[in-house]
Amino acid sequence: MGSPRRPQPPPPPPPPPALPSPPAASRGERLRALHWEPLPAARVRGRRSVWAPRPPPPPLDLPRLRLLFREPRGAAPGQRPPPAAALLEPKRSLALGVFLKQLKRPVRQIVRDIQEGIGAPYGAEKLLELSRLLPGAAEVARLRAFSGSPWQLPDPELFMLLLTEVPSYTQRLELLVLQEEFFPRLSALRSSIQTLTDAATELLECEELHTILHLILSTGNHLNSGGYAGSAVGFRIASLLKLPDTKANEPGMDLLHFVAMEAARMQRDLLDFPSKLPHVGPASRIEQAEVEGELRRLAGRLAGARSLGAAGLGPRLPPFLRAAEEELRGTRAAMERLHRTAAAALDFYCEEAAPGGLQELCAVLHGFAGRFLGAVQENRAREQARRRRQQLELQRQKRRSIASCSARDAEPGAPRPLPALPPPFAAPPALQRRHTAPELPALPEPRGGPEPRPPEPPAPAPAPFFGLAGLFQRKGPGAPGPARAAPSEGSALLGFLRRLAAGRARGAPPS
Length: 511
Known about the structure:
Layout: H1 62-69, H2 90-103, H3 107-116, H4 123-132, H5 137-144, H6 155-164, H7 169-205, H8 207-223, H9 255-266, H10 280-283, H11 288-309, H12 317-348, H13 357-409, H14 429-434, H15 467-471, H16 491-506
Helix pairs in contact: 3-6, 4-7, 7-11, 7-12, 9-13, 11-12
Protein name: FH2 domain-containing protein
InterPro entries: FH2_Formin (IPR015425), FH2_Formin_sf (IPR042201)
Pfam families: FH2 (PF02181)
């Protein structure tokens, strides 16, 4: 029994019909071409895709198409300009177009300046940017193979086309960059070298700093006496940053505060030693190795320019080379002085003469100077707070003494001076009893028996006591108010005087 037949795959669809050519070609009119990359037929046939056959679209508006895209009469096929970015890469062409607009100069003028060695109108930054936009090998090949009219090219392609026609344009551009940035860079290097040299000199000559270091040495030896670290003859400069780690018993105070207090007690000028080191801070941010490396690179670039100068690349190059070599010799001499001064400073502070040793020394002393000034300010603030507390305590004690005296005066039974009262006012009853005269003995009865005595008038009521405010209030004779107090004589004396007056009225002889 035979095997069953397998189904055959369906035949591939027929290829799409070719579009009819425009009738304009028969009349000799040329239309602008569409520069595309067509797909191979093998990738379209036999598969389902967007390019599969479908119903034909509506007819095109061919008259309008010819009107919009026909070539001008008389234009030959070889004279058709290439696309806008055909000679350069699109990104490079766009960046170069932006750069040329910033220069605001004609393209031919820029190329002529590069050929003659004139770079001052552009500056080092613009020339460096241009050197980064130079075309690659493939682009240079396309530019040199261009055979059309250069004036139909856009500015970026025209500039590169003219630039590649200049002999040794890359070396010329490098020389222009060197001429524009050599002296500014060399001046910056000399400034850094001078800053490091001045910092080393200040460290050697600052007597106030030396005194502070000896004060710290004496203090440390006293703290470490009897231990392995006692009786030291010196210490590493990096140990200065550890002074705040030794805390004092008083809150917020450490060994650095104590050193600042002792320096203020010994000599006030010692507190201003950071002002004697103005270049130490900037020198702590300069790496001597980078300065030396940049100086070597500039010297190497100058040597390369000297070798190119023999080829006659521009008339301005020889004067530049002479001036640059003279400045380079002066900078090298300044570097030699820095080496000697830095070695002397490191040896003076007993530090290792390692690369970057001067920068490290300056960094430690700059940090110590800043912390020392902070400790001085904190000591002053602490002293001002202590004085304010003393003043407040004195004022509190004064108020306390005044309050205690007032309390003693207010105690009952305590003697206090009484004001003198005017005559119309009576004394209080207690004073009346104290100052009352003793009673006199009774008078003998007259002969003939006792006579009836007239009734005695009632004794006047004692004057009411109105307090301290009532004692100092006086009323007029016609003003209403309580009756006046009785005279200050005792009641016995009053009785005696009354009886004497009654006897005289009866004619009895006085006894």
